[in-house]
Amino acid sequence: MEIGMSVGITGAVGIAAGAWLRQRHRWNRDRHYERLASHEAETVLKFPVALSATVAEPSTLAATFDRERVIRTTPFLAPDCLEALRTEALATRSEMEPSFIPLHKQGHTLSYEKVIRLAPRSWSFFRSPQVVEWLQGVTGVPMLPTPIQDQSTLSLLCYQNEGDHIQWHYDHNFYRGRHFTVLLALVNRGDSNGLSRSVFQRQLPDGGIEEFETAENSLVVFEGGKVRHRATPAAAGDLRVVLSMTYCADPRISWVKEAARRFKDTAFYGLRALWD
Ligand SMILES: [Fe+2]
Question: How far apart are CA 137 and CA 133, in angstroms?
Answer without folding.
Answer: 6
